[in-house]
Amino acid sequence: MKNRKAPTNMISERTWKSLRVMAILYQLDNGLPVSSTTFCRHTKLSRSYLEQILSQLRKAGFVLSIKGPGGGYLLAQKDISVTDILRVTETMADDVFFEPVLHALSNVSIASLAAQLAPSISNNDTYRRFTLIST
Question: Which of 21, 35, 56, 105 sits in a 20 to 30 Å window from 15, CA-based?
Fold first, then answer.
């Protein structure tokens, strides 16, 4: 039987950015929609790339989209974990090898990632410095 090697890069850049987008949305949440312009300013992502990420998160039920003047994006729910995002953004999330990682990350909430972003959510590399620990 062939030994299975662990993937060298288990989480894609897009997933890191999706986690960052969700953490920023959580941090900016005040009950009012966050505009694309505000989102772009905080994430330093292009509008088209940001909207691709938000579309995927909206289809998964994590984000609400409000059209028109005063529109933008809202959290659809607050009790979202890193595992929830990984299951949407990564194909390997269904891999048996990855299951222990998913289980461990199910206790890491987007709220805890948002807390780590404060006070500087404008630093574009902050998403790389998340400490994925349970709070």
Answer: 35
Q: Which domain holds residue 72?
A: 13-78+109-128
Find how far residue 132's CA is from the centre of its chain.
12
Would you place residue 107 in the very low, low, confident or very high pLDDT band (cuts 50, 70, 90)? Answer: confident
How far is residue 81 CA from its own chain's centroid?
9
Taking alpha carbons only, the member of 133, 125, 98 closest to residue 43 is 125
For 47-96, the pLDDT digits (tens) are 999 999 999 999 999 999 999 888 999 999 989 999 999 889 987 656 67
Residue 72: its H or E element: strand 72-75
For the chain, how big is the Rg over CA atoms in Å? 15
Q: Is residue 3 part of a domain?
A: no
Transcribe 19-41 into DSSP letters.
HHHHHHHHHH-SSSPBPHHHHHH
- Is residue 6 in some structural domain? no
